[in-house]
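Priority: low. Protein: Down syndrome cell adhesion molecule-like protein Dscam2. Input follows.
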Amino acid sequence: MHVTVDDSDDYVCHGLKAHDDNELRRPDHPTITYRLIVHAPTNVRLMLAQQVHDKSWQLSCYAHNLWYEIPMVYVNGLALIDAMEEMGVPAQTNFYTNPINVTLKSNHPLSGSVQCISRPAMEEAEIYGPGLERGRSMNLYVDKRLNVRPNLIVQGPANATRSMGTRVQLICIPLGVDDLRIRWLKDGNYLDIAGNRRLRIVGTASLEIVGVAETDAGLYTCEVSDASGAHQSRQSARLSVAAQGTVPKPIPPPASSKEDTTDFISFEVAKPVIFMDADHNARVQWSVKASHEKHAYLREFVVEIRQKDPLIENSSTLWTEADRVPAHVRATTLKKLNATKKFQFRVSAHFTGGFNQISSPPTDWMGFVEPKMVIPLSPRITRVQTVSHESILVSWEHVTGTKYNIPDKFIVNYMDTSSGEVEEARVRNSTNEVLLDELLPGAEYRITIFAENSAGRSLSSRPRIARTY
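Result:
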């Protein structure tokens, strides 16, 4: 026979005479009580990988055999949701999912212990009942070592020959990160671009020379350094100047060729995956090619949404912006959407350098499905106190997993053990105690409590015995 966590309870075997059901109500027959505790073993899977293009970390923490609980992630003993501020990571992640998927792009190198825990224990264990098993965990240790630093220049200048009086552009495209410093050198000396009207920066860092003169010939170097100045990349090219009219004009490429080698023709944003929950939130997740060289130009992603009334034809609205996240983020949560509408989602990638945005294919139309109510969990009696010769005060506590198993009322059953007569008291769900009055003096009562909602009645609480004076 297969058991589940719901089978955890006390089981009583009664020794009764045949065909005498009334004897069950009397306490003088032999009984044997068995306690069954069913453990639900959990397991966790922690995955951690560093991306090559921007050195960010992809983290995934998944827990098996959980119901409504969620796993937890710790970095060096500190909950990740709190550690992100210390690491300099923008707070763009929803930590209330299973699995937890996070892209970490911090200002400080990630180093130390990363831990994925399946479920809490210690003080919180008491509210889960006898089926609790302490959480499983999986640890990975990240060792910060000296890595080969990436080249800060994606595309450097190429050798060129120009006639005097023409113009030339020396291309330099830096890595698409913030706080980079760009400078140009000629023959090892820094150029004063602001003080020379014939020199200017076009695009992000390319150098343009207008009215090329014989003195412009030389070795030009594009220098890109990070904010600290400790990391620097250089690429050089030679400019030759010929007499006017001696350099032939280049043959224009045919119409079918690609003049711009940085075109994003092969860059794609996959159709987003949508998870819609009972609280009318939509979790949007998407992906792009992790190794694509054009990641250097990514600036941000824009999540777009449109809606329609399912009861009215041709009622769909235009695409509108729902959220905007940095380039390293691959998921976001749109909260409190209209439960009566249907929605389509798409994600657009936006780039630096004036390149056109690229949008993912739209999702199918989808809407929220309201879940049904479920039977509430069993209450737990916390106190039984005899107040007088005819009254007993009963207190209890009740834990709800979700808003769909909240009870409407509590039913308190109390039975005089000598007569077997059962009575009940019904109270609202906002109450957690009741005074049972008009009881018999000197009588013993067996008290149990049920929780009830539109889905049905819960299992009984464990019985408690109390006696009036």
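Confidence is low (pLDDT under 50) at residues 121-132, 248-265. Helices lie at 80-87.
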